[in-house]
Amino acid sequence: MTTGPLSSATPDLLRAVMVATLKEWGSIRSPQVEAAFAAVPRERFAPEAPLEAVYSVPDVVVTKRGPDGRATSSISAPWLQAEMLETAQLTPGAKVLEVGSGGYNAALIAEIVGPSGSVTTIDIDPFVTERAERFLAETGYSHVRVVLGDAEHAAAEHVPEGGFDAIIVTVGVWDIPWGSLLAPAGRMVVPLRFSTISRSFTFVRDGDRFVGLDPTVCGFVAAQGAGTLPDQEAVLADGAVRLTLEEGPILDVAVLDQALTGDRTELWTGVTVGRGEPFDSMHLWIATTDDRFGMIWQDPDRDCGMVKVAMGWYCPVLITADSFAYLAIRELPRAQEATEHRWEFGVCGYGPAGAELARHLHDHVQVWDLDWRTHAAPTFTLYPADALPPAPAVGRIFRKRHTQLVMTWQ
Predict the structure, then answer these.
(1) Active-site residue among 73, 74, 76, 195?
(2) Beta carbons of 321 and 250 less than 8 angstroms apart
(3) pLDDT score for 2
(4) Per-residue pLDDT at 90
(5) Exposure string (b/e) for 230-264, b if CB count within 10 Å is 16 or more?
(6) pLDDT tens per residue, range 254-299
(7) Is the dihedral of CA 11, 94, 90, 158 positive or negative?
């Protein structure tokens, strides 16, 4: 939507095209969500961005960056906002908490719950809440309550009688302290991080636990405040490459950086993928079986020529204090022009233990392909931190401050 006849289109036309595209993609599935997206002027909440960028269905609009250039506040991509609103199953009169503000998503929620409902949106950054409050007032949504505070604790100060009917979190979080604020039949839509993986879940209560439905691959600006747990990070090649690891030994950044210029172990798995064929369950399988699992990131604007990762975002890697091995990919030759494009997964290892890590990651990919690739996706259950959840026969328990996330392969 950045070139062609839409480049000079009006906001109303761009909004109509966005809604039509979201319906075509299947992200909008209900008349309530459709009406909300058609009504709220998205461009009024990001006046600094070009209209085509504001209404681009797959794209995030960054509204603030930190000193290091990374986004600290943004308006999520329309497709993901629509998916989260659909899974929240909001109804007129619902009482909704939004964690992470900006204004636009709160306005969408306000449209759906109507004048008989209520929306409370909380953010820790005064820059964000000031903008949200101003933009909401200017677009006719001044009844939305905007709260400046750390949602880890501040949300409990605004819980209505009977609890919130829905809690929608629009920042990436490592834990969920808001379960007690939810009404018995309420739903929490949360982008939750575990072992550096992010999935947006819809959590519904089941006794003293929550069942996680509709896990969706996503990326969000990380939450700030008391509830954060920053991943370990090793910045290599003057910032062109980053390794992230949630748990494990302290990373020796100097040694890891030097490893990039040393010998490399390269293995190819024989496991292939076609264009548009999903393989996100591979991440879940490797994280299930190997606690050295992390992510490698390559700056697309700073190709150092040292790594060729399989994907620009959320690319799996095994990491130790001084070595790592990441997932690579190469296009296979086609026998005939009509043959489908196929790519083969490989592994590249660096450092003293690079060859060993490469072999382990190579084997994980092959086991996933043989035993779990076409298998049903794992299920997720959220327990309180003091509970004793049953250990899954195949799976992993991710223990956090307030909760425990249990991933189970059936």
Answers:
(1) 76
(2) yes
(3) 43
(4) 98
(5) ebbebebbeebbbbbbbeeeebbbeebbebbeeeb
(6) 999 999 989 999 999 999 999 889 999 999 999 999 999 999 998 8
(7) positive
- Two tokens at 294? 């992390």
Amino acid making up residue 86: E
- Compute how many other C-beta atoms are within 10 angstroms of the C-beta atom of residue 368: 23
Instruction: Please state which CATH number belongs to domain 4-217.
Output: 3.40.50.150
**Residue whose tokens read 């007690």:** 180
Residue 311 to residue 358: CA distance in whole angstroms: 17
What would the 3-class secondary structure string for the chain be? CCCHHHHHCCHHHHHHHHHHHHHHHCCCCCHHHHHHHHHCCHHHHCCCCCHHHHCCCCCCEEEEECCCCCEEEEECCHHHHHHHHHHHCCCCCCEEEEECCCCHHHHHHHHHHCCCCEEEEEECCHHHHHHHHHHHHHCCCCCCEEEECCHHHHHHHHCCCCCEEEEEECCEECCCCCHHHEEEEEEEEEEEEECCEEEEEEEEEECCEEEEEEEEECCCCECCCCCCCCCEEEEEHHHCEEEEECCCCCCCHHHHHHHCCCCEEEEEEEEEEECCCCCCHHHHHHHHHCCCEEEEEECCCCCCCCCCECCCCCEEEEECCCCEEEEEEEECCCCCCCCCCEEEEEEEEECCCHHHHHHHHHHHHHHHHHHHCCCCCCEEEEEECCCCCCCCCCEEEEECCCEEEEEECC
Calpha distance 402→161 (Å, rounded): 23
Residue 242 has phi, psi (to 5 degrees) of: -130, 140
Phi-psi region of 93 (alpha: psi -120 to 50; beta: other; left: phi over 0): left
Instruction: Collect the ranges in the chain with pLDDT lower than 70.
Output: 1-8, 303-305, 335-338
CA distance 209 to 187: 13
Instruction: Give yes or no: 73 in active site.
Output: no
Two tokens at 288? 């299930």
Contact (Cβ atoms closer than 8 angstroms) between residue 159 and residue 153: no
Q: What six digits make up the tokens of 136?
A: 């909401």
Helix crossing, 281-289 with 354-367: angle to 10°?
Answer: 120
> Which pLDDT belongs to residue 305?
66
pLDDT at 222: 87
What pLDDT is recorded for position 303?
67
